[in-house]
Design goal:
With 416 residues, this protein is of the alpha/beta class. It is built from 14 helices and 17 strands. The longest helix has 21 residues.
């Protein structure tokens, strides 16, 4: 599952018990029980995460690393304990390889400015795919403007899959960095990242994987993958917003200059010279999101208590059911039909703008995402301004799928 999110045999998930762990699911929206199908944007948080954050804020809050008093020591222990929890979750070698950031976007920008910008020159190439989120496009465009290097883009096919052979043909001696998503946020496509990493390493390129949409749905082992950098966000993993992780191989991080300057990322400061702190703190300037790290650790505990294989199998069943049901509806076109998909279903309704469709669904208590999903090149490829996107998580049920189908039928009556 580390590379391809392949389904495996696993015990059935007790979804009704899981749902009781998420108090927000008791919400009533426009007179209807909430059906939350927007977890690819931001997953809801279980009580275990809410309580962990409350416990920290209520009993342990202080600034970290700088105090000898009891609360500071407790906060530091909680924060650094969260780092160790992340290390175990993705099987990194050392906590020195775990950098806390605000989210996937900040992690990618850190690599762009601290690894790529100082090293790349005119004639060098960065290779990404058409499937990327804007966060894995714009930072590399900035590096190209700053250094004179070239951005190359591997194509996709009509199913929304990476054209692997053409990707491999674009790799060459000038390729210095490859940046691809593990899972497409817009389509749910699972990319063959293990093969991508191996091929990139054969030409001497460094690889960054955007794992924001992968870590909630599969066991990710960064050492098994061989990724040089791997980034993800806490809020898609049932954790708080404003916290994320950059994993980087220690030898790469050690050779990189700091991205931001300030407190805690230094050892000594004088007006003549500053010496920088050791890893991982060299990249964590200023007071960090301590409660966010605590909540992220609790989210990882919670998800592993459910069993990631069981969660993945449940989500795949819902995806297959929803795909089959929507395919039978008149006027519905499913966008992105890759053979390997995570629990994301993008679609359009003929003659109806996705924003209007989303409004009708919301009136029925159903939350889906509509728009270009920060993946405008994907929309351009399919000739669309936007899609509606339903995304499934551990707390969704077959009833949620039937409610989506019912509401889409009502939307068709309104608009068509």
């Amino acid at each position: 599952m580390a590379a391809n999110l392949s389904p495996v045999a696993s015990p059935a998930l007790d979804v009704e018990r899981v749902r009781r762990d998420f108090p927000i699911l008791d919400t009533v929206v426009n007179g209807h029980p909430l059906v939350y199908l927007d977890s690819a944007a931001s997953a809801q948080r279980p009580r275990a995460v809410l309580r962990a954050v409350e416990e920290y804020e209520t009993h342990s809050h202080a600034n970290v690393h700088r105090g000898v008093h009891a609360l500071s020591q407790a906060a530091t222990a909680a924060y650094e304990g969260a780092r160790e929890r992340v290390r175990r979750f993705i099987n990194a070698r050392s906590t020195r390889e775990i950098i806390f950031v605000r989210g996937t976007t900040e992690g990618i920008n850190l690599v762009a400015q601290a690894w790529a910008r100082p090293r790349l020159r005119p004639g060098d190439e960065i290779l990404i795919s058409t499937l990327e989120h804007h966060a894995n496009i714009v930072p590399w465009q900035l590096v190209c403007e700053q250094t004179g290097c070239t951005l190359k883009v591997a194509p996709i096919n009509a199913r929304g899959e990476l054209e692997l052979e053409e990707f491999l043909e674009l790799l060459g001696p000038r390729t210095r960095l490859v940046g691809v998503a593990h899972v497409s946020n817009a389509l749910g496509t699972v990319l063959p990242v293990k093969r991508v990493i191996e091929a990139a390493h054969e030409v001497g390129a460094v690889v960054l994987i955007d794992g924001a949409q992968a870590v909630p749905h599969s066991i990710v082992d960064v050492r098994a993958l061989g990724a040089d950098f791997y980034v993800f966000s806490g809020h898609k993993l049932y954790g708080p917003t404003g916290i994320g992780v950059l994993y980087g191989r220690e030898e790469l991080l050690a050779a990189m200059p700091p991205w931001q300057g300030g407190g805690d990322m230094i050892l000594t400061v004088s007006f003549e010279k500053t010496t920088y702190n050791e890893l991982p703190w060299k990249f964590e300037a200023g007071t960090p999101n301590i409660s966010g790290a605590v909540g992220l650790a609790a989210a990882m505990d919670y998800l592993e208590s459910l069993g990631l294989p069981a969660v993945a199998a449940h989500e795949q069943r819902l995806l297959q059911l929803a795909t089959a049901e929507l395919a039978r509806l008149p006027g519905i076109e499913i966008i992105g039909t890759a053979a390997q998909k995570a629990s994301v279903l993008s679609f359009t309704m003929k003659g109806v703008h996705p924003h209007d469709l989303g409004t009708v669904l919301d009136a029925e208590g159903i939350a889906v995402r509509t728009g270009h999903h920060c993946a405008m090149p994907v929309m351009t490829f399919f000739g669309l301004p936007a899609t509606a996107r339903a995304s499934f998580a551990c707390y969704n049920t077959e009833h949620d799928v039937s409610e989506l189908v019912r509401a889409l039928g009502k939307a068709r009556e309104v608009f068509v």
